[in-house]
Structures are given as C-alpha cells and as structure tokens.
From TrEMBL:
Keyword Chaperone belongs to the record: no
Source taxonomy: Bacteria, Pseudomonadati, Pseudomonadota, Betaproteobacteria, Rhodocyclales
HAMAP family, A to Z: Iojap_RsfS
Subcellular location: Cytoplasm
Protein name: Ribosomal silencing factor RsfS
Transmembrane region(s): none
One GO location term (cellular component): cytoplasm
InterPro entries: Iojap/RsfS/C7orf30, NT_sf
GO biological processes: cytosolic ribosome assembly; negative regulation of ribosome biogenesis; negative regulation of translation
Family: Belongs to the Iojap/RsfS family.
Gene designation: rsfS
Subunit note: Interacts with ribosomal protein uL14 (rplN).
Length: 117
C-alpha cells in the first residue's frame, strides 16, 4: 500500500471517531525507522482506545498490516505501528507533557536566532 494512501486511511479513521488535533509529521529526514508520525488526541481512555482500534480496523480492511499496538491497557497513550507510519493516540495531558510534535519536528516553532559573530 502506498504511503500517502495509508496516511489518508489513518486520518479518515481518526476523524470517524472524532479525534482532536490530528497532526502529521514527515520523519523521512529524521529517522530511517518510519516515514510519517501521526499524532491525535482523545478525551478519555475509552476514546483513545476506540481511535486506535478504528485505525487498526480500517487499515486491515484496506489490505494493510498492523505491525504492533502498545498501550491499549491504560488508554493514556496508544501507539499503533503500521510500518511506514507510527500513530500516537494520546489524552491531552499526556500529549502536552511529552510534546512529541516539538521533539520530532525538524525546525522548532520559535527558533533562536544565531549568535552574532
């Protein structure tokens, strides 16, 4: 399955279950492990688990494979590994604490100016 097609399936699956603040980060220049990271929030453990489950179901329905899933027990942070795409479904407080968007973006939101020589 093509990466862009897989990405759209994941986004649609997250939107179907009313995910909050879906963000896609292109990681091709940052790591060889995966090409995209998709981060989304759910308001409760129940919703994060439902979001992760819907992503898995829709990917499988489209003929894709799910490599692994972590964190379904607590529902605070569920990771769905789809090979080329890693999906993080988190509750807002956990997402704010770990701030994966800032960690994985190649350019920070507020870059510091270079010191003058």
């Amino acid at each position: 399955m093509e990466l862009d097609q897989l990405q759209q399936i994941v986004i649609n699956a997250l939107e179907d279950v009313k995910a909050i603040d879906i963000e896609v980060i292109d990681t091709t220049k940052l790591t060889a492990l995966f090409d995209r990271m998709i981060i989304a929030s759910g308001n409760s453990g129940r919703q994060t688990r439902a979001l992760a489950r819907n992503v898995q179901d829709e990917v499988k329905k489209a003929g894709g494979t799910v490599a692994s899933v972590e964190g379904e027990d607590s529902g605070d942070w569920v990771l769905v590994d789809l090979g080329g795409i890693v999906v993080h479904v988190m509750q807002p407080a956990v997402r704010a604490y770990y701030n994966l968007e800032e960690l994985w973006k190649a350019t920070p939101k507020n870059p510091k100016p270079a010191p003058k020589a």
